[in-house]
């Protein structure tokens, strides 16, 4: 009998994980606060708050809104599934900027969950860019992205995204980056 526990068997969303814990495990030291920021795929089958880390804010990157009946703030921040990796495209930059503004807003409640359909592509790009502004090494960002399973697109695409990330980050307001860092880093 296989003693390994699969989170999807426990009705957690696909690719569900604590981003802070994943990064800390990959780096073998505490860099990010744990139980603050989660990522996953679709939350359509979630019935209990524990399945999504008792998230107080949920940001949905999918084209349609969630219909969760939990006491949490639900934010719909869709991105076309065709442009998600190209951080040189203005609409993707605006989407990322809006995501970062939500994170830095003092009214945003944590823990926070970000998700798309599979928890890979749009969620993966948002997570990768967030980790980049938090000064997480690129190799760790790629490893964190690689923890996702199932129908994630070519894992090399995230490396391509990160090549152009500095151009986007240089346009960001330093106060936004500092605010996010204070919330998520030790």
**Helix count?**
7
Q: How many beta-strand elements? A: 5
Beta-strand residue fraction: 5-15%
> Which whole number gives the mean pLDDT?
89
Classified by CATH, the class is: Alpha Beta
Structural class, from helix and strand content?
alpha/beta
Any overview of this molecule?
The protein is α/β, with parallel strands linked by helices. It has a single domain, classed as Protein tyrosine phosphatase superfamily (Protein-Tyrosine Phosphatase, Chain A, Alpha-Beta Complex). Helices cover 38% and strands 10% of the residues. It has a five-stranded mixed β-sheet. α1 packs across α4, α2 packs across α7 and α3 packs antiparallel against α4. The chain starts with 16 loop residues before the first strand and ends with a helix.
